[in-house]
Amino acid sequence: MNKYDPEPVLTVAIIGAGFSGIGMGIALKRAGIDDFIIFEKTDGLSGTWHDNIYPGAGCDVPSHLYCYSHSPNPDWSHVYSRQGEIKTYVEDCARHYGVIGNVRLKTAITKMHYDDDAGHWVLYTEAGEKVCARFVVRATGPLSVPLIPKIKGMETLKGQVFHSAR
Question: What's the domain count of the chain?
């Protein structure tokens, strides 16, 4: 809170509960900062690894490199881990470091702006809730919004069209 705005002001708002968002939450907890919320538009943690559930989904980075430096996993089952195993790893780390209580699932941030007079960010959820924060971390990831290309003849395709992010 400051003298210009009587509303509560979070220290940090994190947008996205994927690998980066959860990692930022863990870093804040480890630094002794608990006054943050991780906003996640879907119903689960781990971003890409929550959304991408198609057969054979996996990582193209060797597993021993694709983990948090403070939480190495010597027990990966594959050199290039599968979706479910990575999702479980991210969720386990979030639980271990106490980040789960800072996550708000099914809460999409639809717009935000910086309020110069108040000296903080103002975020709005899809439900119309207003949230203020001193700092914002955008951890939405490059694969969070599907883009289906317009391909000639696609409308007559017999079969299902899908995007790996959904």
Answer: 1
> Domain of 27: which CATH number?
3.50.50.60
The residue range of the domain holding 23 is 9-156
The model's pTM is 0.86
Q: What span, in angstroms and rounded, lies between the C-alpha atoms of 148 and 130? A: 32
Per residue, what are the HEC states of 13-80? EEECCCHHHHHHHHHHHHCCCCCEEEECCCCCCCCHHHHCCCCCCECCCCCCCCCCCCCCCCCCCCCC
Cα-flanking dihedrals φ and ψ of residue 19, to 5°?
-55, -45
**Structure confidence by residue, pLDDT tens digits, 3-30:** 555 678 999 999 999 999 999 999 999 9
